[in-house]
């Protein structure tokens, strides 16, 4: 896919240098420029969904055919399992309106709240993908 993410996409998500970010939902339709932007800002390669150690954040690619809001809630809970106890940022990326696989914001927000996450803002990730930042309050607080 074309480099549409822009050089600051990773930092717009709330990720910072040195963080380890776990990726869920990778498939051949993801925007490689978005992935690169996250790796550029953190200075680390993304770790896959099978990674079982503590991470600082998560990047989730979610499409309408990946399941319903219950499936998304379950995936968000899986992402929370590895987050550092101090909390962290989860970004859910969905196809923009008019693109195949688009998911409405109400579905994302409902799944996030059910998983105990707070939506903190939407961001245009690339030409084809929107992101919703979700904040974990942290289990250690």
UniProtKB/TrEMBL annotation:
Q: Which domain of life is it from?
A: Bacteria
Record's protein name: DUF3052 domain-containing protein
Give the originating organism. Georgenia wutianyii
InterPro entries, per the entry = DUF3052
